[in-house]
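pls design
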């Protein structure tokens, strides 16, 4: 009975953005432990380095290194991809995890609420620039290398449908809806190249610093338990492996892949209909 923990990714090369903490850290470390060579890309290279130190040079692990990357900078994205291919000889997997959430708006000096007309316009725009444009910049820089290799994955981290629509959750919900559209469009663009594009979500609010004070308060009031970042590990290992070959444009929910499931059971349970559906 094969489980996700049995997956090996020896020889694969990956970039995980926002890898210093939270979901990104959990995924980057899991890929490294599965044998992939992984760049932990983040604005906070110090914390990214700490995350690398926790898994590097251990038995069965691939090589790992921390790299500074601001995904809102075209040149930073291009440099990160170029350095990765130079150091590791190629690139096969891009995990677009870095982003800004509601906490970014709550930090504004004149913060009063998350109602769209009361938010700081510059901070609102920065969330869109980071989440939507930054995800595009990284994918734009990486895609030619993946296509040239003849095999690859772009995995975009988004969020649940309820979060996209929840009141006082603009621009975060707006940005993640846009990334869902990016995923579906890019998946079609990549058909026939050997490269697939998928979206991956935890399945609820995760226990990370990314969740705003309001988000934690709402979760507590509703009796919701915050998800641990480790819910992303099983699906990202599967998506990064040849076991997911032939699939493209999927949307997967980490919390539905239970620890005792086989790979076949977990992949089937985690698959969710696309948020954006074409009418019949």
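designed seq:
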């Amino acid at each position: 009975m094969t489980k996700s923990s049995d997956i090996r990714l020896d020889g694969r090369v990956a970039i995980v953005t926002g890898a210093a903490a939270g979901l990104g850290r959990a995924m980057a470390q899991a890929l490294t432990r599965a044998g992939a060579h992984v760049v932990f890309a983040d604005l906070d290279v110090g914390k990214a380095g700490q995350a690398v130190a926790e898994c590097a040079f251990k038995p069965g692990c691939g090589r790992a290194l921390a790299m500074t990357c601001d995904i809102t900078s075209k040149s930073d994205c291009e440099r990160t991809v170029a350095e990765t291919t130079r150091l590791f000889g190629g690139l096969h997997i891009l995990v677009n995890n870095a982003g800004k959430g509601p906490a970014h708006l709550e930090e504004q000096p004149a913060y009063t609420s998350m109602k769209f007309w009361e938010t700081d316009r510059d901070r609102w725009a920065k969330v869109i620039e980071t989440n939507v444009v930054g995800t595009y910049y990284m994918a734009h820089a990486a895609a030619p290398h993946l296509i040239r290799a003849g095999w690859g994955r772009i995995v975009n981290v988004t969020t649940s449908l309820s979060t996209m629509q929840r009141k006082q959750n603009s621009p975060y919900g707006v940005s993640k809806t846009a990334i869902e559209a990016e995923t579906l469009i890019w998946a079609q663009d990549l058909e026939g190249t050997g490269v697939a594009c998928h979206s991956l979500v935890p399945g609820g609010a995760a226990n990370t610093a990314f969740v705003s004070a309001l988000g934690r308060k709402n979760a507590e009031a509703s009796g919701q338990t915050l998800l641990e970042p480790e819910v992303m590990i099983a699906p990202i290992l599967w998506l990064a492996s040849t076991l997911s070959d032939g699939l493209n444009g999927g949307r997967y929910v980490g919390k539905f892949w239970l620890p005792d499931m086989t790979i076949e059971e977990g992949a089937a349970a985690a698959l969710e209909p696309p948020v954006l559906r074409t009418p019949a």
